Structure formats: C-alpha cells, structure tokens
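The protein record minuted underneath.
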Amino acid sequence: MDIVERFLNYTRFDTQSSDSSTTTPSTEKQWDFVRYLKKELESEGLDDVYLDDLGYLYATLPANCDKKAPVVGFIAHYDTSPDCSGANICPRIVENYDGEDIVLDAEADIRISPSVFPELLNHKGEDIIVTNGHTLLGADDKAGIAEIVEAMVYLKNHPEIEHGDIRIAFNPDEEIGCGAHNFDVERFGCEWAYTIDGSEVGELEFENFNAASAKITVTGVSVHPGYAKNKMINAVGVATELASLLPANEKPEATDGYEGFFHLTSLSGNVENAELSYIIRDHDRKKFEARKKQLVRLCEQINEKYGRKVVKCDINDQYYNMREQIDPVMHVIDIAIKAMEKASVPVKIQAIRGGTDGAQLSFKGLPCPNIFAGGMNFHGPLEYLPIPSLHKAMQTIVQICNITAQYND
C-alpha cells in the first residue's frame, strides 16, 4: 500500500466530530476508524500499540541504533470538521493539473478556481486529489495520519536510516477543541513532538492564537406589541444591539496576520430569550485579555442602559499561544527546518490564525509545534490535496527522525 492508497482508504470513514456531544470521542463513528487504525499499526509491525477507552491511539517504532537519542513524537487527529459532511466522500485524482478551473460537479457548477484560490497555481503539473464538491475531503487531518504511518513504514523498511525511539499518536475531537484534553503526555513519553496538521507545503508553525469562547444570554420582557411602549425588552433586538457595539474592523473577514478578532458564530432567540456565541482570538496575550474585558464591559453597558441584568456573559479560555512554551526549546524548530531543507521543502514559518492540539499539549509539558500536512481549503467541499505534498510531508518526518538521532552527537 502506498501513501496515496493509504489516504484514499482513510477517506472511506466518516469521522465528523460534534460540538454538542458530551462523550469522548464525540461521535461513535470515530471509533470505527480508530479501531481500524489500531489494526493497521499492528499489521505494519509497530510496537506498544495501545488504544485507550477515550479513543486515543499510541504506538512506538523502536530505535534502530545504539545512540542515546531523544524520544520524538508525531501526532495527528482523526476527526473531521462539523462544518461540512464527511460521509460518502468521493475522492478523485486530477492528473497533471493544467492551471485551469477544476470542475468538481459540472451540473451544479461547483469548481475550484485559481481566480479565487491563486495558490492552486503553485501545484500546476501535479496530481491533485479533490472531492465531488459535496463533502469535505478529510485531508485535515487524515493526510497527517497517512504521512506519519507511511514514514514509520519507510523507516522500518530502511534500517540504514538511523533513528531513536519514535512515538506516534492519533486522537479524536481536535476540530471541536478537545483533542488534547485527554491526551496522556506521560504515557506518550516524548521530549518533544510535532503535530502534522498544517496546510501548504513548507508551513512550520509555533505561534497560534490565544483563544476563548463567550456565551452571552439575553433575557427580555415580552409584552403585546400593541402595548409595548416603555415595557417590552426585545431580547433579539438587544442581542443585535450588543453585536453592533463591537468594532466592525475586528472581525475575521476584516483581519489577517497577527490581527485578532471577535467572531460571532451564532445568534438565536425570540423576544423573551436570545443567545449569542462568540470566539475571541489574539496572538498577543495582553491584547487577548483586553478583548475579554472589552466584551464584559459592553455587556455591563447594556445592563446599565436597561436598568436591570438583561445580559449575562460567560467567557472560558480555550488555549494559549504555544510560543511561550517553544521559545525555551527552539532546537525543536531548528531540527524541523533542517529536515525540510533535506527534503527539498521551502520553509514557510508563520503564525497560525487558529489553534492546534499542539498548543494545548505545549502547555501540558510537551513542546509541540505544527508542520504542514499538505491539504488546502480545509473544512469545505473545495478541499484538495496535491499528491507531491503527501510525499514531502512524509519525507520531512523521516528526516526529523534521522536528525534527532544525531542530536546528542
């Protein structure tokens, strides 16, 4: 089985997670895939293959040299985004991409166009895996899983490439922010690790957003609209009023780079009750804390206006910028850079406008930057995966393992 066949095989499994679930994994169908992965790792000859009762899968490729090398790890998540269906995925390979629009569904006029996604032209002449335009592809992060497994098989079949003990792990529910919550760092037993969960070839990320979620509830007063003057408090109206008070230029659609934002993810309700859900993001910790205080202050302002507690705001931190934990161990970045260079991959160091399991794991004592997996346009039906990117990610993993074996020389 080659890496392309391995990835395509993984897309047969619907592993969509659910943020409304109270179980781990959040969906029963994730179990089908991780149990399959367990059997695959065993059949490929890995050691210490262990699947815990929360769906976290761990395994080891033992060292093939006598050097006292650090134990390095590689991690990927097997759930796919709740934003788009992951069922009945129909992948196909566009051979020798010609630089024109890729038509996914001619009848529905669904296409990936370089006029909208100019980065597609970086892959002209390559074979590219796409969907039929009605589901996501699942390269986030089944490409990462395929690359890690293939790298372990490659190292096993090429004993001339020296490496120390290598640990791998696959986890559920990253897409709903819970992937690292039950990750057993002690069992994993690594000095550092890498999540293989980035996008374009060459991406290396060790900065991410500080992140929080905010749930705002509005309690109104319902009165017959014919007699409502000075009596009614329309909860939906108050909710939209509050939303309008946040800066219009600090939304996701108006920001990039290191700019943070407030993102209204849902608004629902009626005259009596309404609810807003926000996510708050900023790379800078001080600005992040200021954003949370700003939202609380606006809620208090609304309450003062109406002379009662109309609005209640609950804010919960989700994860923090891993840069704080990576700065003291920058050798893990240096090794990744050298590995990419050896694999002929152009290095693109950038900050993540999001988060990875690696952010939470870094704060649990496992420094864990993020490396590209190669897929593009994640979380939607226009997702695609250039096949050379699969190979480049796999080769980067192999090189990291070999370089780490020389680390204490």
